[in-house]
Write a sequence for this structure.
């Protein structure tokens, strides 16, 4: 019954209506899981004017792409998007539903899981097949990243939200899949109404920056973040923070790196005056290289860092920034 | 009519404890806290703060609801003393938070709320600090068939319902909903106020009720997830410390080393 064992990827689109990098990674991961599950890979994209995204999905391994294209789906609405998924699941059986651990899926998937009575594992950092039991295991950090739990899901479809950089983008396929436009009924009355959106601008998106420079409680106030901005500028990076500076209002809360803020994995993460609370570590520990600057030699952050400097950031940072600036300029 | 609010709170080991205080037992698949006190899960504290602000603005009656076992009286008294009106505990030896998945937890809480209600507003934290799942709040609302809004940074009760600022990756959106409704609260709401000492003493005389598992009619064997393995994280690296007579000297060495190792 190959037909009945499809893996469904819940795709998301960027503001320019392409599929997101995270979605591409899910297509790669989904292809692997579908293969182990002897099933097919399919995708669902919801939005307004998402034909181009559907084509991309069809060219990246989806045997079928379901498209829900309607002006009311332009931006995420819990009730409307839930209804599309509910209707699709009522028509087509799936064995796995894969979504990114994104703003949308963190809201949508719990609703769907409870609607359908299905088990859901959120914030997955890995998926693999347990050979002895033939079960798929979903790994996720619990207790703020102090333990990694592996779950099997007893209901179908198995629902999961996966962190960025867990899957690898697939090679484009030679024969594109079929694109199926879902029938959109008449617009419905929703109980909840979204009456406004307020954007808080930032220059480089934290999740995409190659370098992230973050400050912690030890920065002592908003002024110190000026030095971090200068360093980030020299390195073409973005500035983040652990939770205390955000709670204290020194920096916008959108700067928070951690299990409840942004999860980042840049080439270089520079942690300044951050002690290394678990909830922060969970948001940056996958970074390729980690530099820690802290005046407390016992700070836990040094245990997860590749390079460390024990000392006062107020003395170290200006020299560090100007030396890097000088050398990078010389290199051109 | 007085606004009836229920805030769901969970007792967890202090998530700000150092990593060494979370002992992972791979045999029993349990995390045992060592030398750290129990606290109310921080986002649940934010949810209580949101409820207190609503009570200040429009009045209301706040019931604090918790489910579990081995409750610390001191932890709940302190939370009650911030301005809650009543405590409702669902306590039982079989209610081990590490053995219940989101599905079971939400079903138990939804049953308790239904039995104890009606409520106009249910508040929860965005996720618990131990399971980090972020499902129970939205799950309760789905089971009760009421609207729910996640990740609130501001919650107001206005004419005709609820006005919530919901956190987005790059800003926020404004969501309006009729009551009854459920809101999951994020830390942007602000920290829970600290109760004055006399209030903590006075909190002892606030009404306290309890429900037993048998009162709820929920089967505990209904987990949809099966924990098959629990392991400590592998996150430690070997750190090269920069030596120097002064932080300035070490900083210069660090810059050169990063370039030499082609990190930059």
């Amino acid at each position: 019954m190959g037909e009945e064992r499809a893996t469904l990827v819940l795709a998301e689109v960027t503001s320019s209506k392409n599929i997101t990098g995270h979605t591409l990674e899910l297509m790669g991961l989904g292809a692997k899981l579908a293969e182990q599950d002897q099933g097919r890979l399919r995708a669902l994209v919801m939005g307004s004017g998402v034909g181009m995204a559907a084509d991309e999905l069809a060219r990246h391994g989806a045997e079928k792409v379901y498209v829900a294209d309607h002006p009311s789906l332009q931006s995420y609405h819990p009730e409307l998007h839930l209804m599309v998924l509910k209707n699709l699941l009522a028509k087509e059986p799936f064995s796995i539903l894969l979504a990114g651990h994104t703003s949308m899926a963190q809201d949508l998937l719990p609703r769907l899981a409870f609607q359908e009575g299905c088990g859901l594992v959120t914030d997955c950092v890995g998926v693999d097949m347990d050979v002895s039991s033939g079960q798929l295991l979903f790994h996720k950090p619990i207790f703020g990243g102090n333990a990694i739990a592996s779950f099997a899901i007893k209901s179908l479809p198995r629902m999961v939200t996966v962190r960025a950089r867990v899957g690898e983008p697939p090679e484009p396929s030679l024969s594109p899949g079929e694109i199926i436009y879902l029938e959109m009924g008449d617009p419905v009355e929703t109980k909840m109404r979204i009456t406004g959106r307020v954007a808080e601008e930032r220059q480089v998106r934290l999740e995409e920056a190659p370098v992230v420079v973050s400050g912690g409680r030890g920065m002592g106030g908003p002024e110190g973040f000026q030095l971090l901005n200068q360093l980030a500028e020299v390195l073409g990076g973005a500035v983040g923070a652990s939770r205390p500076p955000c709670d204290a209002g020194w920096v916008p809360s959108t700067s928070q790196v951690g299990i409840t803020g942004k999860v980042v994995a840049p080439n270089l993460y520079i942690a300044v005056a951050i002690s290394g609370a678990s909830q922060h570590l969970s948001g940056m520990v996958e970074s390729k290289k980690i530099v820690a600057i802290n005046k407390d030699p016992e700070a836990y952050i040094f245990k997860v860092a590749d390079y460390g400097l024990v000392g006062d950031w107020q003395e170290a940072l200006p020299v560090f920034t100007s030396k890097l600036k000088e050398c990078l300029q010389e290199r051109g | 009519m007085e606004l009836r609010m229920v805030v769901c709170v969970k007792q967890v080991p202090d998530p700000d404890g150092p990593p060494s205080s979370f002992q992972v037992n791979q045999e029993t698949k349990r995390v045992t806290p060592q030398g750290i006190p129990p606290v109310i899960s921080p986002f649940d504290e934010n949810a209580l703060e949101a409820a207190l602000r609503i009570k200040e603005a429009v009045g209301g009656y706040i019931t604090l609801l918790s489910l579990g076992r081995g409750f610390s009286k001191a932890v709940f008294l302190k939370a009650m003393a911030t301005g809650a009106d009543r405590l409702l505990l669902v306590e039982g030896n079989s209610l081990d938070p590490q053995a219940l998945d989101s599905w079971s937890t939400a079903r138990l809480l939804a049953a308790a709320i239904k039995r104890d209600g009606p409520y106009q507003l249910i508040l929860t934290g965005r996720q618990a600090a131990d399971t980090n799942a972020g499902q129970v709040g939205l799950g309760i609302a789905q089971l009760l068939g009421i609207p729910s809004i996640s990740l609130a940074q501001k919650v107001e009760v206005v004419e005709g319902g609820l006005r919530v600022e919901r956190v987005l990756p790059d800003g926020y959106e404004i969501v309006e909903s009729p009551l009854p409704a459920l809101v999951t609260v994020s830390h942007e709401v602000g920290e829970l106020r600290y109760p004055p000492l006399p209030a903590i003493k006075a909190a002892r005389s606030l009404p306290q009720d309890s429900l037993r598992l048998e009162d709820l009619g929920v089967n505990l064997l209904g987990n949809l997830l099966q924990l098959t393995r629990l392991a400590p994280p592998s996150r430690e690296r070997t750190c090269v410390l920069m030596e120097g007579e002064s932080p300035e000297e070490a900083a210069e060495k660090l810059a050169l080393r990063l370039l030499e190792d082609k990190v930059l």
